[in-house]
Amino acid sequence: MKEIFVSAASQPSAARRAATRSPGRAVAPAPAPPAPAALAAKVRTLAPSMTRSMQRVAEAVAGDPAGCAALTVTGLAQLTGTSEATVVRTARLLGYPGYRDLRLALAGLAAQQESGRGPSVTADISVDDPIAEVVAKLAHDERQTLADTAASLDTAQLGAAVAAMAAGRRIDVYGVAASGLVAQDLAQKLLRIGMVAHAHSDPHLAVTNAVQLRGGDVAVAITHSGSTGDVIEPLRVAFEHGATTVAITGRPGSPVTQYADHVLTTSTARESELRPAAMSSRTGQLLVVDCLFVGVAQRTYDRAAPALSASYEALAHRHRR
Asked: How many other CB atoms sit within 10 Å of the CB of residue 75?
């Protein structure tokens, strides 16, 4: 699927975003720094979007948290062949206010690893792997992806998205290719609990429907890269028409987030020739979708439970043979 990158010049400024949102629009609180256990997951999620120098810093702290925790900002800069400013920028991108906070997290992660809970290592699938080994490797990678997504998911953003969807008059979900399958999964789940929800993978229909959204409606965009034009465009239209917007993406600084009130970050297992991004990204996306669905069902339980029972009864005869 062809993807586009939205330049900084075409992205709305902070002032424009503030002006576009209606006065009563809720904004989720700033996320807390990630816990030590989430540091490695953050590095895996954010590294592809970092500069090469920032990647060196991120890889160093994830690879040797104990050693890096003992270093000053100058020492880590020298170790990685970067600058102190790069070290501080990397710490902030990983979610820490400054290098001191990152060092504390590194010390905590090192203590966890010493107690026997260090991160596991996976291996790529080879073309001549026996099927039993393929199963084992895929199962390992799926578990890692789920763990990383859970560790890096901002629960404040998730709660805000759930609240908006639970109160929403209508929910539109945008996604194409593998993300389109996830969009359909979310819409179908919401329909079963009585919500008005539609999934759109056709870009023309997505924009046509986005034009009809207003305040009180919710638009959800699902794109791992965060730069899929066919998903960004309807989300932008929904955003500009006053709908609450949610982005589910593996790239928290990507173009799609410029039009999102709430950003839910997914992680992916390491890609290989036989396990492309379309497979690994879908695992994390499905976890986030399930979290959204369960959260909405909890908040709307009085009407969700009867609706779920009614849909089950309506389809039960199809499963009786």
From this structure: 14
Question: Among all chains, which residue has been given the structure tokens 């979290």?
Answer: 291
Find the range with the poorest average confidence among 3-17, 196-210, 252-266, 267-281.
3-17
Amino acid 2: pLDDT: 40
Residue 222: CB partners within 8 Å, gap ≥ 6?
A: 173, 174, 175, 179, 180, 182, 183, 186, 231, 248, 249, 285, 289
Look at the pTM and tell me if it is higher than 0.85: no
> 258 with 11: CB under 8 angstroms?
yes
User: What is the distance, to the nearest Å, from the Cα of residue 48 to the centroid of all Cα atoms in its chain?
Assistant: 14
Cα–Cα distance measured from residue 162 to residue 34, given in angstroms and rounded to the nearest whole number: 21
The DSSP element (H or E) to which 303 belongs, if any, is helix 301-316
CA distance 12 to 30: 20
